[in-house]
Amino acid sequence: KESHSILLCHDRIFGTLDLAGLPSRIVTLNLRNNSLSGMIRLVSLPNTLEVLDLLFNMFPTHVVYFEELPKSVETITLPRECVCKLKPIGKDINIPLDKIKLSM
Questions:
Q1: Tens-digit pLDDT profile for residues 30-77
Q2: Structural domain boundaries of the chain?
């Protein structure tokens, strides 16, 4: 059975993150307060995704790569200290500043 919400906060999860393999019907993915690292790539996100929370992890990257976000996305919360630049993959893609929140 596919999950609509995945809440794995404070679970001591470590390793890199591949968002391209998320379940096709996921609405919420909260991975706050873990030890995730590696590059943040907002690509191939499911069309149903509304909320993505990656705060308080160990991402060393300073560039977040993204493609056109699904229309369903309401909020993507990223750690401010890990993001210096939002870089679109492809041409004619606007930075979705109304949907991406940088927080402490």
A1: 999 999 998 899 999 999 999 999 999 988 878 899 999 999 999 999
A2: 5-103
Cβ pair 18, 40 in contact under 8 A: no
Q: Go through the chain and tell me how many residues it has.
A: 104
Q: What's the token pair of residue 98?
A: 């109304």
Closest CA to 52 of 100, 3, 2: 100
DSSP conformation class of 34: S
- Sequence-distant (≥ 6) Cβ neighbours of residue 67 within 8 angstroms: 42, 43, 44, 88, 89, 90, 93
Residue type, 50: E
Model pTM?
A: 0.88
How does DSSP assign 35-91, residue by residue? EEES-EEE-S--TT--EEE--SS----SEEEE-PPPTT--EEEEEGGG-SEEEESSS
What is the C-alpha radius of gyration for the chain, rounded to an integer number of angstroms? 13
